DNA sequence: CTAGAATCGGGACGGGCATCCCGCTTTGCC
DNA sequence: GGCAAAGCGGGATGCCCGTCCCGATTCTAG
């Protein structure tokens, strides 16, 4: 439809502008901002938004998908270069920081199901990597064995939702998750 | 208006029934359930609901206020009978368990501001008690000094949102919060 | 420059929901 | 038993929002 090559130049411009504005607005105020408002700030009509992105969900997918892909790539990088424990905690922190900087991403991460379903696979990929790293970290003894993936997800979500400095809560959670805590 | 003594008997009955049903429904499905649905399940008209509780918020206040009052009383009890560290962790756990059993309460606890306001309206300053217990527990050296009240709130909220067993995540968070973690 | 097609703007539409209203029913006192 | 008055039911109203549509506008190939 809006092919990057064949589309009219004004259409390409508008599409990019909508994406840019929507990314800012979702990051600042979350996904509940009306489409109408995004159109207004982008200086286009609502019709223009919904032609490029037939559904609000499509818009979200286009924006958040890119962020998730970045994080997934980082996860792979970490898995390759670091030991399991280090890699797991690094991904945990990166995920949290990404969410803290992007209100929309944080909302999404809070709704377990939606993150998995988002887009084709962007969300599922990241979730899969996180699960693998958790398992590996537990295997290697860096993370206590009694926590589940869903516990980790909940903790990530709690950390991202913070407005205040992240360091204290990250320290608390990292200490709690590490194996030395469970053994006193 | 709907005075417990002077009201007509059918009015009292209906009011009680609405409260009962709403408490169940909010606990099971959260605050987003339409008022219409509550009326239907209670076997009354929507008008009856909104006469007794002019606003959906009023209904929520009536229900959650009672829970908050219970927890506040428990907090006072704990503060009187236990040492600060024990009392703090006990309240933490009680709060989490209450939220895990009540979807509506969990939603509310996630929205920092609203819980404060609702507690105030219901005359149950649970948040204040939690803050006091945290401060006392930190003073006594039971809780690491670098965590803030808002960190605690976030962790509580994350724990309550769980559907799976609470024990693992409670153990993780308790270990992370305790002072021995911060000192290695 | 021009024509025709792609794109635009923003109003129309529909669905969901909280709240209000009013004709009818039930209650409780005499 | 009868009659105000209180209470009831649920349809009407208003608001918010996402999506669709179409006459007006802008682009670009020739």
Could you explain the architecture of this structure?
- The structure is a homodimer of 184-residue chains.
- Chain A is mostly helical and 184 residues long.
- Chain A folds into two domains: 1-54, Homeodomain-like (Arc Repressor Mutant, subunit A, Orthogonal Bundle), CATH 1.10.10; 55-183, Tetracycline Repressor, domain 2 (Orthogonal Bundle), CATH 1.10.357.
- Helices cover 75% and strands 0% of the residues of chain A.
- Chain A is built from eleven helices and no strands.
- In chain A, helix 4 runs parallel beside helix 8 (122-139), helix 5 packs across helix 6 and helix 5 runs antiparallel to helix 8 (122-139).
- Chain A is elongated, with a radius of gyration of 19 Å.
- The model of chain A has no long low-confidence stretch (mean pLDDT 91).
- Chain A binds chain B through residues 110, 144, 146-148, 150-151, 154-155, 157-159, 161-164, 168-169, 171-177, 181-182, and chain B through 110, 144, 146-148, 150-151, 154-155, 157-159, 161-164, 168-169, 171-177, 181-182.
- The structure holds a DNA duplex (30 and 30 nucleotides).
- Chains A, B: Pfam families: TetR_C_43, TetR_N.
- Chains A, B: One of its GO terms (molecular function) is DNA-binding transcription factor activity.
Key attributes of the depicted protein:
TetR_SbtR-like_C (chains A, B), 184 residues, DNA-binding (chains A, B), Transcriptional regulator, TetR family (chains A, B), mainly alpha, Tetracycline Repressor, domain 2, transcription (chains A, B), 2 domains, homodimer, HTH_TetR (chains A, B), DNA-binding
């Amino acid at each position: 439809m809006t092919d990057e090559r064949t589309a009219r130049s004004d259409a390409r411009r508008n599409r990019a502008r909508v994406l840019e504005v929507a990314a800012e607005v979702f990051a600042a105020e979350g996904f509940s901002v009306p489409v109408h408002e995004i159109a207004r700030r982008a200086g286009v009509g609502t019709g223009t938004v919904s032609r490029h992105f037939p559904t609000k969900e499509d818009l979200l997918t286009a924006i958040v998908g890119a962020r998730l892909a970045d994080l997934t790539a980082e996860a792979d990088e970490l898995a390759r270069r670091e030991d399991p424990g280090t890699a797991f905690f690094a991904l945990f922190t990166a995920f949290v920081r990404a969410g803290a900087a992007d209100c929309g991403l944080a909302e999404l991460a809070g709704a377990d199901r939606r993150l998995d379903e988002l887009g084709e696979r962007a969300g599922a990929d990241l979730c899969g990597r996180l699960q693998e790293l958790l398992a590996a970290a537990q295997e290697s003894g860096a993370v206590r064995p009694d926590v589940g993936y869903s516990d980790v997800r909940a903790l990530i979500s709690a950390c991202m939702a913070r407005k205040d400095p992240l360091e204290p809560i990250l320290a608390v959670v990292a200490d709690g998750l590490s194996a030395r805590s469970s053994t006193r």
